[in-house]
């Protein structure tokens, strides 16, 4: 049994040869198409993820995100969220791996780093939602949180909106100040501001913070533009929210994963509210979103292994085109399959 392994060198090669714009555009296109199939009932629903919280001196979350495409394969992402990684270890906040298993034999056919592709697919999913729900011609993007995910949010949204400027706010001034350098490839002016000013002037606002459980909201309910669209990205565990209840009460809300929306994300604050259309519903029937383009809307994103499955397909496709990835016998195949010692 051979497993194709994509390491950091391979992903760096894909980024440099194919280009991040081409990869992001492909992700947005394939994710929109995939969510539309899901909305039409043409593919399997993703199960909720599972995992555990890590307490103590170095808190965090370890999560397991599976998705099975019947007859095709199973994608499994193992991902950790460790908000102290940057300060303690100079590591990314999000680290993990994503694998593809053969649907019949269960053998692992591919294994890749999940860091870069998770960041890109999260931005791409937000871009799919934003293209459906934001006011056409939106030019001002505001980001609350200036970490790694803010980079791919800005990149992805720049591919679907005619952005003219980016507003950035972070409780860590050094992160906000360094953001312009990290998104210089977008060739857009970046202005460091506070959360209230960002909320007041944004056409589209993304919250991508490491706020602790019980520490939200990270923005107020207003003042704001009447057509504001919000992508709530950082609330991804029980008890963690970023948006004020008053904003949610006024908004049309779309979720990426109905099966986990009430356990994680902003819908935790709305126990009595019925779930509205999902992102899959909107992709399958964009006319559902049309009446909400001039009013407040929220995309409540908690992350989906369905999106990881599509993103891994995109990554493996580019790797195949470039002849990248090393095949390794990670899983054992005994000479006598009835004798585990006959390796």
Question: Which SSEs are present, and which pair or pack?
Answer:
Layout (H helix, E strand, L loop, with lengths): L2 E4 L1 H11 L1 H20 L10 E5 L5 E10 L3 E9 L3 H5 L4 E9 L5 E6 L1 H19 L6 E5 L3 H11 L6 E5 L3 H10 L7 E3 L2 H7 L2 E4 L21 E4 L12 H6 L1 E4 L23 H6 L12 E4 L4 H18 L3 E3 L15
Parallel strand pairs: 1-6, 7-8, 7-10, 8-9, 10-11, 11-13, 12-13
Antiparallel strand pairs: 1-14, 2-3, 3-4, 4-5, 5-6
Structure explained in plain terms:
With 343 residues, the chain is of the alpha/beta class. The chain has helices at residues 8-18, 20-39, 85-89, 115-133, 148-158, 173-182, 195-201, 245-250, 279-284, 305-322; strands at 3-6, 50-54, 60-69, 73-81, 94-102, 108-113, 140-144, 165-169, 190-192, 204-207, 229-232, 252-255, 297-300, 326-328. A hairpin with a 3-residue loop joins strand 3 and strand 4 (73-81).
Total beta-strand segments: 14
Strand content: 15-25%
Question: By helix and strand content, what is the structural category?
Answer: alpha/beta
Instruction: State the separation between the terminal residues, measured CA to CA.
Output: 13 Å
Question: Please, what is the oligomeric state?
Answer: single chain
At the fourth CATH level, what is the homologous superfamily of the largest domain? NAD(P)-binding Rossmann-like Domain
Count of DSSP H/I helices: 10
**What about the largest sheet?**
7 strands, mixed
- Might you state the CATH topology name of the largest domain? Rossmann fold
The radius of gyration computed from the alpha-carbon positions, rounded to a whole number of angstroms, is 20 Å
N-to-C SSE string, H for helix and E for strand: EHHEEEHEEHEHEHEHEEHEHEHE
List the uncertain runs. Answer: none
Shape: globular
- Could you say what the CATH architecture of the largest domain is? 3-Layer(aba) Sandwich
Instruction: List the strand order in the largest sheet.
Output: 2-3-4-5-6-1-14
Query: What's the number of domains?
Result: 2
Which whole number gives the mean pLDDT? 96
Helix content: 25-40%
Given this structure, which CATH class of the largest domain is correct? Alpha Beta
């Amino acid at each position: 049994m051979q497993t194709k392994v994509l390491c950091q060198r391979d992903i760096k090669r894909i980024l440099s040869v194919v280009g991040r714009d081409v990869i992001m555009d492909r992700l947005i296109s394939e994710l929109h198409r995939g969510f539309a199939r899901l909305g039409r009932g043409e593919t399997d629903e993703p199960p909720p993820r599972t995992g555990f919280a890590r307490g103590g001196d170095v808190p965090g979350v370890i999560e397991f995100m599976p998705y099975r495409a019947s007859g095709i394969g199973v994608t499994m992402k193992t991902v950790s969220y460790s908000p102290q990684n940057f300060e303690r270890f100079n590591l990314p906040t999000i680290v993990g791996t994503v694998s593809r298993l053969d649907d019949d034999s269960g053998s692992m056919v591919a294994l890749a780093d999940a860091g870069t592709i998770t960041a890109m697919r999260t931005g791409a999913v937000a871009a799919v939602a934003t293209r459906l729900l934001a006011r056409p011609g939106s030019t001002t993007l505001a980001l609350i949180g200036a970490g790694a995910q803010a980079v791919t949010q800005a990149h992805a949204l720049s591919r679907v909106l005619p952005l003219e400027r980016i507003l950035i706010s972070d409780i860590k001034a050094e992160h906000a100040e360094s953001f312009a350098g990290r998104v210089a490839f977008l060739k857009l002016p970046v202005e460091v501001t506070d959360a209230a000013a960002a909320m007041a002037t944004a056409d589209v606002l993304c919250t991508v913070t490491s706020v602790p459980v019980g520490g939200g909201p990270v923005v107020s309910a207003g003042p704001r533009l009447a057509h504001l669209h919000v992508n709530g990205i950082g609330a991804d565990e029980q008890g963690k929210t970023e948006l004020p209840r008053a904003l949610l009460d006024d908004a049309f809300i779309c979720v990426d994963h109905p099966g986990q929306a009430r356990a994680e994300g902003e819908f935790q604050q709305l126990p009595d509210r019925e779930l509205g259309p999902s992102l899959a519903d909107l992709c399958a029937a964009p006319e559902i979103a049309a009446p909400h383009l001039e009013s407040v809307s929220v995309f409540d994103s908690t992350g989906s292994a369905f999106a990881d499955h599509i993103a891994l397909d995109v990554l493996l496709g580019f790797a195949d085109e470039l002849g990248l990835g090393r095949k390794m016998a990670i899983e054992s195949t005994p000479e006598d399959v009835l004798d585990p010692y006959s390796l």
